[in-house]
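Example record for the data management plan.
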Amino acid sequence: QVQLVESGGGLVQAGGSLRLSCAASGRTFSRFAMGWFRQAPGKDREFVARISGSGISTYYADFVKGRYTISRDNAKNTVYLQVNSLKLEDTAVYYCAADNGDGQYNYWGQGTQVTVSS
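Corresponding structural encoding:
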C-alpha cells in the first residue's frame, strides 16, 4: 500500500508560479512511476505529467507546452510539479498518483487546490 499526500496548492495570480509536492509513504517509492492529474470544476480529470521510477523519463500532456516540470527526489519519497506562467484555465484540483508497474495508477492522493486569479 502507498499513501500519497499532496501540498503546495493555493491562490495565485495569472502569470505566477507554484511548486506542488506529493509525499509518499509505504512501499519502495522508486519502484513507482508517478503521475500528476488535474480536475477542473465541471470537467473530467485529465493527465498532466508522468515520471519514471528512476526520474530519467518524463512525459507531458500537450497543453503543458513547457510551462510545467515534473521531478522527483527518491531519497525524500517525493514527486514535484513546478507550474509556471499560470493561466486562469489551470484552476483545478491537482492529484498525484502512483503506478506500480502494471500501467494503472493504483494509488491516489486527496488532491491540492490550485486557483488562478486575474
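Summary line stored alongside the record: Residues 38 and 72 are 18 Å apart (CA to CA).
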